[in-house]
């Protein structure tokens, strides 16, 4: 089930707005396609990220995949738990498996992202 409280990108990242912070991670579909996640290269705290630009890497037993930021802004926090337990993304991609948080983000960029229903339709056409 795709949570309805967030927006989704075509590269399978999600963003959930919590006040002035945008919490970001990868979707259940993405973690399932990757398989067992073994390593996450997190963006640097304080760095700037740009919408749809690569900002990290997720490695699994199957492959390495670039991580893209769904919106532009500043990295305010990273999920340091993923450094020692990256597999939490497999078991809980929407809560404990969040990857980074963005502050000073461009709210208008959220309009170009998909809601849960649109993302589910997108998955049907992609497979």
Give the name of the CATH superfamily.
RNA polymerase II/Efflux pump adaptor protein, barrel-sandwich hybrid domain
Strand order of the largest sheet: 1-2-3-9-8-5
What is the second-level CATH architecture? Beta Barrel
Shape: globular
* SSE-based structural type: alpha+beta
SSE order, as H and E?
EEEHEEEEEHHEH
DSSP summary: helix tally: 4
Number of domains: 1
Which stretches are low in confidence, meaning pLDDT under 50 for 5 or more residues running?
Answer: none
Beta-strand residue fraction: 25-35%
- Rounded mean pLDDT score: 96
Distance between the termini: 17 Å
Number of strands: 9
The radius of gyration is: 13 Å
**CATH class membership:** Mainly Beta
Helix fraction by DSSP (H/I, runs of at least 4): 10-25%
What is the CATH topology descriptor?
OB fold (Dihydrolipoamide Acetyltransferase, E2P)
Question: For the report, how would you describe the main beta sheet?
Answer: 6 strands, antiparallel
Descriptive keywords:
4 helices; 3-stranded antiparallel sheet; alpha+beta; 20% helix
Please give a structural write-up.
This protein is of the alpha+beta class. The protein has one domain: RNA polymerase II/Efflux pump adaptor protein, barrel-sandwich hybrid domain (OB fold (Dihydrolipoamide Acetyltransferase, E2P)), CATH 2.40.50. About 20% of the residues lie in helices and about 35% in strands. The chain has four helices and nine strands. The strands form two sheets. It has a six-stranded antiparallel sheet. A hairpin with a 4-residue loop joins strand 1 and strand 2. The longest helix is centred in the last third of the chain and has 11 residues, at about 115-125. The protein starts with 6 loop residues before the first strand and ends with a helix.
